[in-house]
Design brief:
The protein is an all-alpha fold. Helix content is 59%, strand content 0%. The protein is built from four helices and no strands. α1 crosses α2 (23-37). The two termini are 25 Å apart. InterPro entries: PDEase_catalytic_dom, PDEase_catalytic_dom_sf.
Amino acid sequence: MSMHFGQLKAVKSMINSPDGVDKVRALSLIVHCSDISHPAKLWNTHSKWTMLVLEEFFRQLNCMSYSTKEPIFVNFHLQAFHKKQTIRTKNSS
């Protein structure tokens, strides 16, 4: 949310821009909208998609560790952080 108002300003300027839509900025806005609306989903949907995103993140990181590409994550060590996370259920406090 720290970048929320900056992104809104960028979108408003894009709409009025004679140069058209900046695709990278537009995709960034789509990801941002998904991010802030995600917790409003039903719990089953929210937890399922959270785990899918985490799995994809670690899959990509794992692929990068076996390639010649530099990791895009600075100071990030391969660990199964998602396995250490606890997911609160509706009934837990």
